[in-house]
Amino acid sequence: MRTSRQARAGQYLALLAYLVFLAFPFLWLVSTAFKSPRELGSLHPTWIPRHPTLDNFRQAFDEQPLLHAALNSLLAALAAALIAVLVATPLAYVMARHRTGLARVATGWVVVSQAFPLVLVIIPLFLVLKNLRLINSLPGLVMVYVVWALPFALWMLVGYVRAVPAELEEAAAVDGAGRVRTLVSVTAPLLAPGLVATGLFAFITAWNEFFFALVLLKTPEKQTLPVVLTHFIGAEGVADLGPLAAAAFLATLPSLVVFAVIQKRITGGMLTGAVKA
Amino acid sequence: MTLVTATKRSAPDAPRADGDRRSPGHGAWFLVLPALIPILLLSVGPLLYGILLAFTDAQSGRTAPTRWIGALNFRDLLHDTLFWESFRIGLVWAVGVTVPQFLLALGLALLLNEDLRLRWLARALAIIPWAMPEVVVGIMWRLVYNPDAGVLNETLRGLGLGDGRDWLSGLATALPAVIVVGVWAGMPQTTVALLAGLQGTPRELHEAAAMDGAGAWRRFRTVTWPALRPVALSITALNFIWNVNSFALVYVLTSGGPGGRTRLPMLFAYEEAFRYGQFGYAAAMGCVMVAVISVLLALFLVGRLRGDDDT
User: Fold this and answer.
1) What CA–CA distance (Å, rounded) separates A107 from B32?
2) For residues A52 and B201, what is the distance between their CA atoms, to the nearest angstrom?
């Protein structure tokens, strides 16, 4: 297929427009994070800080318990990721290998659960967790995150299990290995990369989550990073721009790094989902 | 390569010789329970409980026992003009985000499918909105929209287009401003799905169509679109549902203001439940949202099935 020179130029122009649209808010965030208060107050803001400073970062840590919040986020996200993978893998295995009614119901739930308005789930959860004295506690939040990450985790894992040839398992069975033994010594090692990708996905989901954390965590020392970030915006919506930008920038870095690592795998999982939904 | 062929052969539809090992019951229950129990306790259970709550006068911090009040909450909702206003805003938001998002993502996916030089950069950049916490996306755009220190007004001033305004606080500009953020935040995901769909279209078909003298638009309509349609419909339906249910982005950008102009249904229900403690009433709102989404999904499925017959 040959494309005319004009068409090529048009394509590059369009691509450039997309690049600007995608990049400029993020570049502005980074630029704002390194600006001095004087420059932030200037009526003609510039793209590149004239006197780059780290003061905003220091001030951000002084104003809000960022480190503590990041630790809370890290704990909640790690626990949620670990438990989600442990719990989802056996079910994903059944969904991938058996065409039982149960597997179909599970698949249906994965699709339907995408459509719940969270508010309908959070009110009863709030009441139940309150009775269990799990409000304002990370374990309560982790429980919610595990279930919340399950649909997509299952979806990804089913794809990974299907990619492991059933012939290998059958061969092991013929050799006399039991079901559990086959799963642990034949299937699991081949699934390992998929398990890691799924875990990392569940990790980012929990690290970024806001709604459940906002409702369930009441005191600042329990709150996760996204909730603490909103404290930088005052009651009247007035914000100290420099520290706000600095804190927001820091909160993004972990997910950007993790996401860059697993992006291809998520894409694969999402595509199977989109095609089959 | 061997992996791929092996997977194909063991597709679940293929007839199996070892029916015994595949049969349900044989150890399947013990594999299913670890996921089933939390799902039932923390997802299905609360959902049903939530529907029950919609028919009660449940409130937070009330000492009197909760009473069953039938459809009273729904009758009140019917007359709640604020709710219907937020409902209308929610629809404008969901359509306003989903449609441009799809068109822009389709354009970008078509570009990225060509042999262009800056392709890798666009792919790398597309990760940013996707990986960012919604709260950070909201904060970032507040900085962009900031009336004094924001890049948007400064750019407009530089181009000589007025001397800037407070986008997020303006009655007329707030909803369009948050819609732009919604489009930005969800575009990469849609682009990647469409791009993957595009890469499933055989190149030979394009070349054959080009040989027959079909122009770009004709090739798109006759070759690209039919192959892309299932992915496009699914991702659009999912995007629409996600947008109807979205919360964090607008909560951080405007908290529903100014004057309720960006108060999406989720924000309204959240305030009703956790600021005013009206659990029963807020649950009824959730039920209405479920009902509307179900109807839309059903329409979509019917449309999709009919479309499948056509092809």
Assistant:
1) 13
2) 49
Question: What is the number of alpha carbons within 13 Å of residue A268 lying toward its C-beta?
Answer: 14
Q: pTM of the predicted model, to two decimals? A: 0.87
Judged by a CB distance cut-off of 8 A, whether residue B295 touches chain A is no
- In B151-180, the residues whose Cβ lies within 8 Å of chain A are 151, 154, 157, 169
pLDDT in tens, chain A (277 residues): 456 788 888 899 999 999 999 999 999 999 999 988 878 877 777 788 888 888 889 988 988 899 999 999 999 999 999 999 999 998 888 888 877 777 778 778 877 787 778 888 999 999 999 989 999 999 999 999 999 889 888 988 988 888 888 888 888 888 887 777 887 888 888 888 889 989 998 999 999 999 999 999 999 899 999 999 999 887 666 678 889 999 999 999 988 888 888 877 666 655 554 444 3
Closest CA to B279 of B61, B10, B39: B61
Distance CA A254, CA B132 (A): 9
Residues of B in contact with A273 (CB under 8 A): 234
Q: ipTM of the assembly? A: 0.89
User: Alpha helix locations (H) across A54-137?
Assistant: 55-63, 66-97, 101-112, 118-131
Phi-psi region of B77 (alpha: psi -120 to 50; beta: other; left: phi over 0): alpha
